[in-house]
Structures are given as structure tokens and as C-alpha cells.
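Entry 14. Structure prediction run on the chain below.
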Amino acid sequence: MPLNKTNKRTRQIEPEQNFKSKVRRPQDSVWEHFIKTPLSTAGHFTAECLYCEKKWTRGRPQELQVYLAKDCLNVDEKTRREYIQKILQLYNDDDTEDNKCFRIEQLNITDFWDVDQNSVEPLSKQKQEAIDQCLLKAFVCCSTPFAVVENPFFVDLIRKLQPGYKLPSREKLAGIMFSHAVVRIEDQVNSILGKAMNLTLGLDGWTNPSASEIEDVLQKIGPDKFAAVVTDNAANCALARSIISEKYPFIVNTRCIAHCVNLITKDVLGKFLSIFLNYFINLLNILVINN
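Output returned:
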């Protein structure tokens, strides 16, 4: 009997093990927009964009999503918006719950002192991601090098403040976390521009006299939203302004007043300084001759 039970148990487990070994994570839908070629490591692929032919030696779905959302110049607007929304959704789902948790569980900094690291439980996914965003904002807004996140003294500080928090690597902080933040901010800016009117396009210097790149900006936001284009008076800038105002007569072609005032001030001060120096030199000559 024991032998039969053992055999029965073995026969029951084997199909389950075989089933688990065949289960694979579903392919991310982002791969529909890329040509993928298997690498020697199972489950990893090279990637080539179907829209612009940009290539990656190893394609990572998160990076490919960011590329479609903000970097690919040839992708259609529907696909771009789809992946912008996918990235925004990663953060929107948890915003309300995160804020609620942080309001309820306000703690003092001393609450984290002298905590036994071995007894600390990891933070929830929501709290981990909320602190990640605060960390990224602090690094970017304070111009702190991303490498600091792996500095032993900084790591020790964070462990003392919040032992359950797992710091991201420098690569993750400067890579996918930063890229996701850029997508979110660009989406907010585009939302504001979408509601704005009477915009002014200001340029400081220009190298392309055909104004094609200015035209791209106008088309992306909407030419009817602009009231004026302003540049300095360099020949190539003046030509670009003229091209734009001819195509869109309602956009005012104007020089930068501040730049003009700056040039006038330089001329006036330059002449004044020249007169003063000549006067001072002549005075010295007179004194030398008299003595």
C-alpha cells in the first residue's frame, strides 16, 4: 500500500510540474511595434522599431514603451497616446491611496532610529513607488548626481530614516524612472498648451534658415494658438520669422525688444567708455608734460 500511495502521489505531481514549466508570461503588447530577434539567453530579444528602424541590442518592454511615448518621431499619434496613457496609468492608480496612507501615518524622523534591520518588513508597493518619486524629484531639482544613490553613506542614511525602503540603483533612477517622469511632465505640459491661446514662440539663435523645425513645433501645438514669433535680429532668425509670418499672416513677426535694448545699451556704454578713456589718457598726458 505505501508503495502505491507513493506512486500515486508521484503521478499527480509530475503533470503539475510539467504544466508549470511550460507556463510563460504573456508577451507585452509593445512588441507588436517592433521586430524582435531571439538572443542566446532565453526570453531576451533584440528590437527594431517598425516606424523609424531604431535598433536595440536587447529590447526591454519598459524602455520600448517610453520610446514610443516620447522619442519616436515617426509613430502615429494614436499609438503615442496609447503608450503615454499606459505609463501614466502606472502612477495614477495608486495616487489617491498613497496620499491617504501618508496623511494617516505621519511619523517623526526619530521613529526610525535604532531599528533592528532584521525585523523590518518591506514597504508596500504603493509606498515604495511614492518614495521613489520623491527621491527622483529631489535628485533632479537639486541637481544631485544620480551616482549618489549608490554612495554607501547615502545608503546608510536612507536605511536609518526608512529601513523598509529599497533604494533604486543608479541605472534604474537615471533610466526608466527618469524617463517615466519625463513622459508624465510632457503630458501635463501638452495638456496646458492644449487649452492655451495667444502663445508666443521665442527663439534665441537659429541655424536652419528654412524654419522647418519651427514649423514642426507650430504644427504639433497648433498654429492658431500662436500670436507671435520672437527672435533676435540675426539674419537667419529674421528670415525664419519672415517665412513663418508669410505662411501664417496672423502670427506677428517681431524682434526681441530685450535683445534690442541690450544692443543699444552696449553701444551707448561702449561709446561712453571710449570717450571716458580718451579723456583720461589726455589728462594723464597733460599732467606728464606739465611735470
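The radius of gyration is 31 Å.
Filed with the rest of this week's runs.
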